[in-house]
């Protein structure tokens, strides 16, 4: 997909405001999920800010995350946490619900989730039985 198409994707979603709303719908679900909650700090605001910056950039919007935090290296940044396939599925499930809540059209939501799915499974670093 070209750079121009990715910008269109961010705009198609509704830009910064929609990304913010997705992040705000997503983290309460993460904090309520038995497999995910233990990995996250109770002070979730800084994580939400980073995710807002990252997802804006990931979907082709402004490079907010890299401007502040440098190269994303997202797999490396997740190595400190035991990420199993089950947790990747849980993360994607929370994200699907958040996108649903925000009211993204089904087709667009499925497309965005498909892109996140690749990353989520790429971050798996721990076998299921650990
Ligand atoms: C596969 C399941 C995933 C799990 C279990 C997970 C878990 C975590 C945890 C525990 C943190 C650290 C929170 C802290 O600061 O203490 C984190 C940070 C983060 N995650 Fe994930 N994550 C997953 C997938 C993803 C995906 C698919 C993306 C985006 C494509 C993503 C983007 C981020 C970002 C942007 C941060 C902040 C990084 C930073 O500290 O600068 N995560 N994640």
From TrEMBL:
Keywords, alphabetical: Heme, Iron, Metal-binding, Transport
Entries under Gene3D superfamilies matching the protein: Globins
Database matches in InterPro entries: GlbO/GLB3-like, Globin-like_sf, Globin/Proto, Hemoglobin_trunc
Pfam family of the protein (one): Bac_globin
Family the entry assigns: Belongs to the truncated hemoglobin family. Group II subfamily.
Annotated PANTHER family: TWO-ON-TWO HEMOGLOBIN-3
Name the record gives this protein: Globin
């Amino acid at each position: 997909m070209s750079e121009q198409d990715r910008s269109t994707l961010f705009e198609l979603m509704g830009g910064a405001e929609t990304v913010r709303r997705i992040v705000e719908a997503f983290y309460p679900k993460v904090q309520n999920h038995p497999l995910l909650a233990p990995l996250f700090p109770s002070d979730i605001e800084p994580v939400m800010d980073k995710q807002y910056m990252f997802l804006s950039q990931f979907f082709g919007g402004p490079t907010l995350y890299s401007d502040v935090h440098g190269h994303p290296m997202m797999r490396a940044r997740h190595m400190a946490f035991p990420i199993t396939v089950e947790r990747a599925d849980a993360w994607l499930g929370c994200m699907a619900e958040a996108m649903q809540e925000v009211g993204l059209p089904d087709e667009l939501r499925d497309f965005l989730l498909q892109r996140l799915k690749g990353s989520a499974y790429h971050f798996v670093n721990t076998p299921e039985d650990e």
